[in-house]
Amino acid sequence: MSIQTLEIIRKRLEERPEELRQARKNGHKVVGWTGYNVPEEIVHALGFIPVRIALGGDDRLVEVGARYASSKTCVFIREIVGAFSENKDPYIQQTDILAFDATCLQNYRAAEVIEYFFKKDVVVLAVPRNFAEDDAKTYFVHEANEFTRLLEERAGRLLDNATLGESVALYNDIRKTLKSIYTFQAARDNVISWEEVYDLIQAGDLLDKKEYLSLLQQTLAELTELQHNPVIEADCDSRIFISGSLIPRGDRKLISIINLAGGRIVGDDLWSGILPHLDLDIKEISPAGVALGYLNRTPHAALPYLDLESDRRLKKLHELLSQSRAHGVIYHTLRYCDPFTFKAKETKNVLAKSGIPLLEIHTEYAGSDYEAMKTRVEAFIEMIRIKSELVEEEAA
Amino acid sequence: MGKQLFRYSEANKEGFLDSDNITFNDGSIVTPEEIWHYLTVEGPVKYPSAFEVNLYQGNRGSRDETLPTSLKTRYLGLTFSARMEKAKDNGKSIAFIQGGQAVDPYTAADTIALRPGLVNQWNNGLEYGNDINKENLRRKKSKEKAFHDMSFEACQTGGYEHVQAGNLRIDVIAPYTVLRCSDVSYGVEAHRHGPNKDVKLLNVDFPLRNQADKPWAIEYFAGNLRRLVHTLDEVTGRKTTEDDLLKAIKLHNEGRRLGTELAELWWSADIPPTNSDDRASLVSLGNLETHGDVQASLSVLKEARKFIAERVKNGVKGHAVTDNPKRLFILGSCVGINGSRSEDAGAIVVGRDDQWSHCSSLVEEEGDPYYNLAKTTLEYPYEQGIEKRAQWTIEQIRKSRADGVIFIHNWGCNTQAAISRPIVDIIKRETGIPTYIHERDLHGLRDEQEQNRVNAFIEML
Predict the structure, then answer these.
(1) Mapping DSSP to helix (H, G, I), strand (E, B) and coil, where does residue B406 land?
(2) A138, B186: Cβ pair inside 8 Å?
């Protein structure tokens, strides 16, 4: 089954770098952003073109990045630094300003290194570790106001609430539509795959936001026509949920291995996937309101939380696992990605209490571990398949 | 056959006995006679590894027998574990903290603050009779447990392996989080899934990125310091007042001033008055937390200043220092080189940025002590952005007249590793001094590979 709008999106992505080049010639500025808590609506409302800096899968760029940011930095960050060094990525080439946050400290370090070596204009948003405390929220509101002020300076204009309100409404519509589309990928009839939806989500990092919303709505209309009422149920497929470190554009190693091994991915809680689009409730149209909306979402693993029982990240993982009717979790950790590697064993133990198996795959962007990963994933999927078949037999 | 152990010479005893007592927090004292007995009789039996004549001794204890305060820091180090056990028996509260932070609020709240190195030291001292290799194997084993329970890519495991195993009676894990290190915050969080439910957890949230000029950031960190003191009070059952904090600030400022004076005195000498290890152990007393006893550190520090001044005046050279050694400045968190082997190769370590950054940061004594402490902490030179940190480091390198700079980062320490190159880049550009970046394993003996690189650098200098 083919969704025609997905083809249009692929074509528009090919055209996008040239479009950005033209926009910049006409005086527009592109803000390259990265960080879980960067309030993109503020960037958008100030008239910038936001483009997410997220790329992976290129071991050579990782090596280049290591020359500047050391070989001990996570591979994702090393690749970003390497890409800035080479300046060949069509999106990185078009950035005028960078907006990074300090949710993950390695992201923050990347901002420093890129600013120093490649003389980029970087605005950094600090993020409190004690994010759940009231004083941390007050602090973050100040930081968001400061972040806005620094962007206003660069935009040469002040942020007005009416424009911010329009941006928030646009982004809310995008999130709402994405959530509706996401339901289809996990459904029984499988009219759209998780992989297609994942690419669709990441297309939004790069495309013009208004056009993106329109394309999402077209996609949803097509899907609804194909399947009026998506039903999600656990069947004999090996339904896999992906968690852990982000999987940005350019990195499809683990995903392709899961597919080749016969697993069906039905959900994720990746920073590069659906998670940032969930539970974002902006209660007030102001930089503060937007920032708090971000901070109050499901927290990123880089922000420590000291009570296991009330950890909202784990609660969200449980909720998404239940919604997607996944049989098992493949927990992806990138080399030196501390936020997720530190939690791998704990997450495994927590899920084991609910009878959900977890396989940690620790990897980097080199191809040298491909076969080893494949063997482990195949064994995991085989185990899940046998287990779900037994459950089906017992139910019958 | 037993290992060859170093022994202090009786010829130096008389001079040592003329030196001062050490006074401790609880008012007790230990006399030079008792210290000498410990170092020559009790210590070598309990801790033969500390006295072993072995090239791989990473941090060789003082052999400078005519410098009494070095023997005293040695004594404080060797008795550390027993003193912590005694403190716990007497109901004292103990907190796990971060390296690179001052401990004024912990002192104010009558709590002993131990950074990761000291937590390990406490645990290491619980077992007697080990030689260096046995001791190292034991440390590796406990660290492996932490790696298993957290991440094998951890540099810092937050004392998890000791606290969760119940080996150490630590009451609260409450470091300044993300100050110079990201692993420690994940380490604190990891305690939430361990079996020891009695230990309290708190992240004292140190905000990043040029925050010292932002009033809201200072207020936020001050609020975190108040929360810290409140949490410490919950453990001790006492009520710490602002006046208590001010007194602690004044006490620690005295230590910081003395530590700074001592370092500058040392740097002023044409002939190095101590070797690398002795310099480090004396200057680090300025933070007053090194031995888990603020008053003991202060009393040794005061005396050390007098002895070093005499040596500088008389041109006395430190033990085992070569003539005209090449002067090395070491950068990075929780790192160091093998002092004695580097001295044998013709060098001497004249300074470090870590620990020194906060030792040289005095806290304002007028006004709200929480606000003042927060502001100073946010101003720590080590925690600033690349350019600002590098400029401060260059200033220290120039003051110390270093010939070469080594930036060391531990395996897994991505927070420091990530900026090692830009920092040394600026230093090289502005001073012309040779630099190199060196990665090492935090845990274990300093190996030949590491020393080969250091020696090659010294030879090049």
Answers:
(1) strand
(2) no
- For residues B253-271, give the mean pLDDT: 97
Q: Please state, in angstroms and rounded to a whole number, the distance separating the CA atoms of residues A382 and A380.
A: 5
Q: How many Å apart are CA B50 and CA B47, to the nearest integer?
A: 6
Q: At what angle do helices A209-226 and A194-203 cross, to 10 degrees?
A: 160
Q: What are the φ and ψ backbone dihedral angles of A231, each rounded to 5 degrees?
A: -110, 125
Q: Walk me through the domains of chain A, giving residue ranges and CATH numbers.
A: 16-157 (3.40.50.11890)
Q: Point out the residue among B153, B185, B209 whose CB comes nearest to the CB of A304.
A: B185
Q: Which residues of B touch A114 (CB under 8 A)?
A: none
d(CA A126, CA B225) in angstroms, rounded, equals: 19
Tokens 């394309």 correspond to what residue? A215
Q: Which residue of B has its CA nearest to A126?
A: B208
Tokens of A115: 């600013």
* Cβ(B308)–Cβ(B315) below 8 Å: no
- Does residue A352 sit at the B interface (CB-CB below 8 Å)? no
**Contact between chains at A126 and B411 (C-beta distance less than 8 A):** no
Three-state secondary structure string covering B143-199: HHHHHHHCCCCCCCCCCHHHHCCCCCCCCEECCEECCCCCHHHHHHHHHHHCCCCCC
Nearest to B203 among A130, A143, A341 (CB): A130
**Contact between chains at A69 and B418 (C-beta distance less than 8 A):** yes
Overall average pLDDT of the B4-20 stretch: 93
Task: Mark yes or no for CB contact A338/B420 under 8 Å.
Answer: no
Nearest Cα residue in chain A from B180: A105
pLDDT tens track for B16-71: 999 999 999 999 999 999 999 999 999 999 999 999 887 776 556 678 999 999 99
Q: Which ipTM score applies to this complex?
A: 0.95
pLDDT at A151 over 60: yes
Residues of A whose CB is below 8 A from B188: 304, 306
Closest partner residue to B211 (CB to CB) among A126, A136, A346 is A126
Contact at CB, A109 and B414, closer than 8 angstroms? yes
Per residue in A279-306, pLDDT (tens digit) is: 999 999 999 999 999 999 999 999 999 9
Q: Which residues contact B244 (CB under 8 A, 6 or more apart)?
A: B108, B109
Q: How far is CA A241 from CA A42, A192, A338, A357, in A?
A: 32, 16, 21, 11
Backbone angles phi, psi at A266, to 5 degrees: -125, 5
Contact residues, chain B, for A308 at CB < 8 Å: 192-193
Contact criterion met (CB < 8 Å) for A112 and B409: no
Query: What pLDDT digit, counting tens, does each position of A28-79 carry?
Result: 999 999 999 999 999 999 999 999 999 999 999 999 999 999 999 999 999 9
